[in-house]
Amino acid sequence: MSMKIAFALAATIAAGALMPTTAEARPELVGAHLADFSPGTIVVKTNERRLYLILDDGHAMRYPVGVGKSGKQWAGVTRIDGKYRNPAWSPPAEVKRDKPQLPDVIPGGSPRNPMGVAAMTLAGGEYAIHGTNVPNSVGGFVSYGCIRMLNDDITDLYSRVSVGTKVVVTR
User: Fold this and answer.
1) Of residues 50, 47, 62, the one with CA closest to residue 8
2) What's the whole-model pTM score?
3) 6 DSSP β-pair partners
4) Number of alpha carbons in the 13 Å side-chain half-sphere of residue 44
5) Where are the alpha helices (DSSP H) in the chain?
6) Annotated active-site positions, please?
7) Which of 12, 72, 132, 139 could form a disulfide with 68 if both were Cys (CB 3.0 to 4.6 A apart)?
8) Neighbours of 18 (CB within 10 A)
């Protein structure tokens, strides 16, 4: 086991020992059979409602996520093309059509902003991997195609990846 993996495992175990037993955000270091993906790749398994950050051939950090609801899911390969802390949010046209009462822009940091504390936009569309102001939505089929994470989890992932990181979304 590499020192990097050993350190990540020790940090994850130590953090877990200090946390209360109620369900809360924190990534899990898991054995992963995702050898088809190179280290540093983000893999979103829509049907599992899990996001994996590949560390090496046998290990990944795993996070629970909310994914696209029926008819809003997608699969494919893209890259992170932007990283933003406390981003403002403008509802895409499809969301605005379904919810015309939404304002044109919700400022970053507002409790009404669905992007949470951070967002990483994905190239080629209007999707992002982002936090949420509705933590109980994580784990469900809930979005218009974005990948929702608990705010503590998006903060952790945000610190581990950079613009250009490959993202693979599977069903």
Assistant:
1) 62
2) 0.83
3) none
4) 27
5) 3-18, 93-98, 151-160
6) 130, 146
7) 72
8) 6
